[in-house]
Design goal:
This protein is mainly alpha-helical and about 325 residues long. Helices cover about 70% and strands about 0% of the residues. α1 crosses α12 and α4 runs parallel beside α13. The longest helix is centred in the last third of the chain and has 34 residues. The chain starts with 7 loop residues before the first helix and ends with a helix. The relative contact order is 0.15.
């Protein structure tokens, strides 16, 4: 398989995941005029983060199959493509007074730059609560090569079972120590290790298959996906329930995404795959843009709709600009 080859359904997953996350943040956090039950339903969009983790495990494994770089080279490339755009966006947020933070603004920026925000609840969500994902995925980047070597040594089945055990034990420890609502403890890598490792295992399983997940039955994917999302919804009413529901949430969303890809509603697959090419940039900029735009909202439904439309437009525009900037910088640095 060529090193640059993209897997269509994985790109689809990434694009659709961002759409779900965007809707979740937009409706649940910013559109205050929307009825409470709609805002509650929008919370299901947060599931997109789990698919992001899974796709990261899949894509990294696929890339490493094709090019076994040294640990230093691997981390350098990850640093350039992930960390630098993230810090650039955080720095822009630092310069914009409308994006408020608790505590000292300079320390808040430094907490992102040097990643010590994982030791401070005051600065952990500074400049945007969504930035937690970047810090967690960086932890997985540091662990990826040891995890990959372990998977190749013991096989993907034992590897996957072991990752589920690690995640379950960590969740039990969180529950026992009453850390189910601790914003830092529930964002550390052990909380999502089975999700990331599932992506790695799926890549190993589908390694020579140009069309992964094509063997999944459409009706099965829909009905089992719906059932698992009902379980997820019922268990999401308190922090303890949310602590344990990542697995039904993950498989429920994954199956529904597979179903949507197979039915290709309104021939939207191609559009969503194209959207995935800037999904990381969209993830970085969407909440800062919403924060700025909705600071001018009058909290009426009409005002919120207008702000939502403007947020969508500006997110796309600034994501494209950031993507082009990142590509230019990457080519210059990696060419050296």
């Amino acid at each position: 398989m060529a090193a640059k080859k993209r897997i269509e359904i994985i790109e689809y997953f990434k694009g659709l995941s961002f759409i779900c996350i965007f809707i979740y943040h937009l409706v649940s956090l910013y559109m205050k005029s929307v009825p409470p039950y709609i805002r509650y339903m929008a919370n299901a969009g947060s599931s997109g983060v789990l698919i992001f983790f899974m796709c990261s495990g899949y894509v990294l494994t696929l890339s490493y199959y094709n090019n076994h770089r040294s640990t230093f080279e691997f981390l350098k490339r990850r640093f350039i493509t992930i960390y630098i755009p993230y810090i650039f966006v955080v720095f822009i947020c630092f310069l914009i007074p409308l994006i408020q933070v608790d505590g000292n603004r300079i320390i808040a920026f430094l907490s992102h730059l040097f990643q010590f925000r994982f030791f401070s609840t005051l600065y952990f969500e500074s400049f945007g609560g969504h930035f937690w994902y970047i810090s967690t995925i960086i932890q997985f980047y540091l662990l990826f090569i040891p995890l990959y070597r372990l998977m190749k040594k013991i096989g993907w089945k034992k590897f996957l079972i072991g990752s589920f055990i690690v995640q379950f034990v960590y969740i039990i420890l969180l529950a026992i120590n009453n850390l189910d609502a601790n914003i830092i403890a529930i964002r550390l890598f052990p909380k999502y290790i089975a999700v990331f490792c599932l992506g790695m295992a799926l890549c190993d399983y589908y390694r020579d298959d140009p069309a992964p997940f094509s063997n999944v039955n459409k009706k099965y994917a829909f009905w089992v996906g719906i059932l698992l999302m009902i379980v997820y919804g019922l268990s999401s009413k308190n922090s303890l329930g949310r602590l344990f529901n990542d697995i039904p949430e993950l498989f429920g969303v994954l199956l529904l995404f597979i179903f949507l890809y197979q039915v290709n509603i309104f021939n939207s697959n191609e559009f969503i795959q194209k959207l995935s090419t800037i999904s990381y940039e969209e993830y970085l900029v969407h909440m800062p843009i919403m924060t700025i735009i909705f600071s001018f909202s009058k909290r009426t439904f009409a005002s919120d709709v207008l702000c939502a439309a403007l947020s969508i437009l500006l997110t796309v525009i600034f994501s494209i600009l950031l993507h082009k900037l990142v590509q230019t910088v990457n080519k210059k640095i990696l060419a050296k």
